[in-house]
Amino acid sequence: MAAQRPVDFWLKLVDKLINEHFSRTLEEHGVTRRQWEVMNLLSRGPASHDELAEVLAHFRTELEATTLTEDLAELAESGWLAIQEDAYQLTDRGRTSYQRLEPVLRSTNERIARGVSTEDYSTTLEVLERMANNLGWQEPAPPRA
Q1: Beta pairing partners, 83
Q2: Are strands 81-84 and 87-90 parallel, antiparallel or unpaired?
Q3: Do 38 and 83 meet the contact criterion of CB atoms below 8 Å apart?
Q4: What is the pLDDT of residues 93-132, one digit of tens each?
Q5: Is 84 strand, coil or helix?
Q6: Which of 31, 37, 63, 75 has a C-alpha 20 to 30 A away from that of 102?
Q7: Which residues make beta-bridge pairs with 90?
Q8: Residue 65, helix vs strand vs coil
């Protein structure tokens, strides 16, 4: 019976499926998952390399071919971000690209939550956060605005 499987089975499976789906979706638009997360963070305001690295640490896997520095360089080469006063920020072109990608990712998130009530979804997030806190996780400081 599926319900008898432990929480780590479901967490790993859902994480794998989400990553695969996001990766395929973003690849169609020429960005990686981590590049999207960089753009998402910078859509809220400038951030230093160290701030980005801290917030994005959970997106880094041993299997990734690129580093955050390489991802930032690629986004800069594309004209999507610039560095000013030791902080990265989206350019107008980057903001436009982000705004075009954002609805695509929103629809992916909606697909993930399809058939799950708002209350159950909220409870799931609260439970997962509590479990992470029980295991020593602490919310990283947000990038400076």
Answers
A1: 88
A2: antiparallel
A3: no
A4: 999 999 999 999 899 889 999 999 999 999 999 999 999 9
A5: strand
A6: 63
A7: 81
A8: coil
